[in-house]
Design brief:
- The chain is an alpha/beta fold.
- It has 11 helices and 12 strands.
- Helix content is about 40%, strand content about 20%.
- Helix 5 runs antiparallel to helix 6 and helix 6 packs parallel to helix 11.
- About 35% of the residues are buried.
């Protein structure tokens, strides 16, 4: 009997190494593929867009907030991979009893590395996961060395429109903004506050970032904000590289170099 814990410290029991995986978190789905586990994935969400072909070769069981329980049952999974923030408590309750549920809870890089290593233990690919963590750390160190001594610009990072919302503290985006060498002007606030254009913190920002996800900001949105803040640099940024943990972190630091340049 194999035992392990998830990031909520819940104990999971397996009769064997899991070979039929349902993943309900896009960044974790991509991680599985990059760890060489694509053949074992049987179910994904409609938002599991990396790699793009996966939604054609695997069963799509719904989104990250709503799922088709019967579809998941029919897949006879050995494990279901979830996330505390992306999936709902009600979903977890509905899934209980179908298969062991591993719940991730990622707020910083250490959490991300822990999750990767947990997958190494569960799927018995410790060498592969250890190498991935090491490679991410090398990219991080190279970026930090190159960016050493650069002045830190202040940034406001928008994630939503109608209402306008920004990333503040207690989330992975804020950690990655700091990793990228920026200061989040909303870091003193919690989570994802709604704001208006009169917010005093916006005046402090040197840069305004509009993320490609969860709201897909476009050039028209840049123009709208530019009319409100003509003196500021406004840029659409790749939201996946600021908010996806797992193997996508390998691409984050090279991207941060381009932003700094």
């Amino acid at each position: 009997m194999k035992t392990c814990k998830d990031q909520l410290n819940r104990k999971l029991l397996f009769g064997r190494k899991p070979k039929r995986i349902v993943s309900l978190v896009p960044s974790q789905t991509e991680l599985l593929v990059d760890l060489g586990l694509e053949a074992f994935i049987v179910g994904v969400t409609k938002f599991c867009v990396h790699p793009n072909h996966l939604r054609m070769s695997k069963v799509v069981v719904g989104g990250t907030k709503e799922i088709n329980i019967e579809k998941i049952k029919a897949l006879r999974p050995d494990i279901i991979l979830c996330n505390k923030e992306e999936n709902t408590k009600e979903m977890i309750e509905d899934l209980t009893g179908i298969a062991p549920i591993h719940i991730s809870d990622v707020y910083n890089l250490e959490d991300s590395f822990e999750l990767i290593n947990m997958y190494g233990d569960i799927f018995e690919i410790e060498r592969t996961t250890s190498t991935l963590v090491s490679n991410i750390q090398l990219e991080r160190e190279a970026f930090q060395l190159q960016n050493q001594g650069n002045a830190k610009l202040k940034v406001a990072y928008f994630i939503w429109k109608k209402p306008w919302m920004v990333a503040a503290s207690d989330n992975f985006i804020n950690v990655m903004l700091n990793e990228a060498g920026f200061i989040n002007v909303f870091e003193s606030e919690k989570r994802y506050p709604e704001i208006d254009f009169n917010n005093s913190k916006l005046k402090e920002a040197d840069l305004i970032f509009l993320s490609t996800e969860p709201f897909p900001f476009k050039e028209a949105d840049v123009l709208e904000l530019q009319s409100q803040f003509p003196e500021k640099k406004i840029k659409i940024v790749d939201g996946e590289l600021f908010s996806w943990y797992g193997s996508r972190l390998l691409k984050s630091y090279p991207y941060f170099k381009t932003l700094q340049n």
